[in-house]
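Task: complex structure prediction.
Instruction: return structure tokens for all chains below.
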Amino acid sequence: MAAPLELSCWGGGWGLPSVHSESLVVMAYAKFSGAPLKVNVIDNTWRGSRGDVPVLTTEDNFVSQPAKILNFLRKQKYNADYELSARQGADTLAYIALLEEKLLPAVLHTFWVESDNYFTVTKPWFASRIPFPLSLILPGRMSKGALNRILLTRGEPPLYHLREVEAQIYRDAKECLNLLSNRLGTSQFFFGDTPSTLDAYVFGFLAPLYKVRFPKVQLQEHLKQLSNLCRFCDDILNSYFRHSLGDG
Amino acid sequence: MSLVAEAFVSQIAAAEPWPENATLYQQLKGEQILLSDNAASLAVQAFLQMCNLPIKVVCRANAEYMSPSGKVPFIHVGNQVVSELGPIVQFVKAKGHSLSDGLDEVQKAEMKAYMELVNNMLLTAELYLQWCDEATVGEITHARYGSPYPWPLNHILAYQKQWEVRRKMKAIGWGKKTLDQVLEDVDQCCQALSQRLGTQPYFFNKQPTELDALVFGHLYTILTTQLTNDELSEKVKNYSNLLAFCRRIEQHYFEDHGKGSSSIRLS
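Output:
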């Protein structure tokens, strides 16, 4: 029988089981593939790691990063892509790359860089779940990491300016959302009637953007206009996460 | 570019037809250019060939610094300068030429997704191999990157670029990857491309699009560039339909026009 699988991840709020995109991707995949995961939400005790979250631990294994965790689960025979054709598998990789290149910078910006959002929502939320005195340091570090990632991948060397990049990343993100909406159409999931890895990734990236209440919401407003993507998130939340909704 | 500047450029672009003297700038072909830049440049050349737009390739040692975004290649058309494949495709579209007009919305989404896949995996792997793999850096990259400049500038520029690329790798989570993991990612990417291509001549059946140009640029360069070992090109050679694809585009778009610079044989 499978050894107990424990997942350490950031907790939930606003109706989501987790507010952190990567944690949400892993949780969703586990639900889709039927993997029995024991979820350990990070709270403000000193127990548990905080770096490199989400982390999957089994008796003798320690896996971090969503892509590796999903690979690990697949090797344990928890495979949500069982019914996909080779070409659909290839499409999955391509769409995940699209999400990471086009949507992720704007999501990171909305959560961690936009000052109104960061100081009123993100920082207090994370700081309340990290023990003092790390709560003073870690959110700032995460914010800097996000800013770095945006500038280094989108900015122009050698002087990186956020202003020039901001307009571009939001435009790319809106285009990406439109593309996803076009691809999803009226189907329930991206490949037919059963959810797969791609659905887990799209859900993981979109759900926090959709549900978390921010003061500065231009990307969220755009997402709310794409009703099929909102329906997609709501469906998954209702079908797979109804019994385990976290509190704020 | 800001939104206003881009709209402005599009307006101007639309006003004039494609001139005869359009030029593409890249680094020096023999001694300086690196794998990733060569791939990007070849992708743009292939795209312009597919659109039937004449372009002259000019090699300059300081191409990287002349470029408005710091990346090569860039094209000089009329009195405008546009760099990188994405903006060049937009610019060419504003002039009324497009390869992807016949695609429907879902196909366009797929095309964009696969282009991001190539950028995300292949291009990053090429950069990793060039700048983070000690053997390649020592033997090839440093010497090539700094070759047009006198000492000590050649060392300084090479180290500066290496530091920049390493920072970027760390920011996107590739800093801790080993070479084997990177090669595996390349394999996964090639497998996805091979599965998507299947037995069709181009990715969207009969007509090539910018995706075909981009894939051709990268794969062809990987196959024909001499590195410290052959592992990277071996990964690509595993997929026979990708090899056939490269040969087909080379024959169709490069040999017919007698372009000496690109008629390197695929072994």
